[in-house]
Amino acid sequence: MKLCSNRPFHRSPGIAAAGFTLVELLVVITIIAVLAAIAFTAGRSALRSAAVATCNNNLRQIGVGLAQHQADLNRYPSANEANTWDRAILPYLGYSGARSIIGTASFDSKKWSELQQPAKIFKCTEDARKRSTNRLTRSYAIVPWTTNWSNGTSFRGWKDRPFNVGIPALIVPNPSMAAMVVEWSEGTEGLAPNELGSGAHVYHDCGGPATKGLDLHREKQIVLFADGHTESLPILSTDAFVAKYWPGKIGNVN
Predict the structure, then answer these.
(1) Chain Cα centroid distance, residue 57
(2) Bridge partners, 181 (sequence order)
(3) pLDDT at residue 72 above 50?
(4) How many CB atoms lie within 10 A of CB 104?
(5) pLDDT tens across 147-171, in order?
(6) pLDDT for 127-142, tens place per residue?
């Protein structure tokens, strides 16, 4: 039986030539590029959503730490104790080391390995601004008029409050509208980037960063209120933020 033939092969007229034309190849490349762009955008959106969720969780844990501080001492942390508010609540957020954490200097991560885990609670994953070498990030600041940190409530209309002394949470009017901790932004006296444990930049009473591009959630900031809930709020001017998220009378020190 003859299995092969020496006759040349001729393609049937109805069968197209194999391979892509240049136009078809360009169409395929364009489709791949569009799909990649969609995937990148969706991935970035998912990362932003995850950052918002993490930030909300961080602030709620900070709220729990402040509540436990209240339960033990019947007041918020205060500025007259040579200690920062974040240092004051670290023992309620997982720090169980033997060393004292009282102080006002930023923590050196190389010297404070036992703080690596609780320090994560104070960092927003979108906060990419550089800190000093080996310094741990603090992405949040306490609101002075709610807690009386730095005589804040006297400035905001509570002139009978003592200077720099933490107040009991029970005397805060309408706690669901009283901002207590906000995300870091440029704020207080133009100081350097916010660092965990530092006495610089501990408080903040603005509705967002003064410099464009330093907001962490695309013109939104996440705020912890005195009742423990959090909200994602639009960036506001300081006056608008104070008027909306401080339930007391806005006054001055005079």
Answers:
(1) 10
(2) 142, 224
(3) yes
(4) 15
(5) 887 765 555 656 666 677 788 888 7
(6) 877 788 889 989 888 8
CB 55 within 8 A of CB 216: yes
The DSSP-derived string for 34-100 is: HHHHHHHHHHHHHHHHHHHHHHHHHHHHHHHHHHHHHHHHSS---GGGSS-HHHHHGGGTT---SS-
Domain ranges of the chain: 25-245
Contacts of 59 (CB under 8 A, 6+ apart): 140, 181, 222, 223, 224, 230
Is the pTM higher than 0.85? The answer reads: no
Q: For residue 199, what are the contacts with CB-CB under 8 A and spacing of at least 6?
A: 84, 104, 105
What is the rounded CA–CA span in Å between residue 97 and residue 119?
A: 13
Q: What is the CA radius of gyration of the chain?
A: 28
H or E element in which residue 116 lies: helix 116-119
pLDDT at 253: 37
Among candidates 132, 107, 102, which has minimal Cα distance to 193? 132
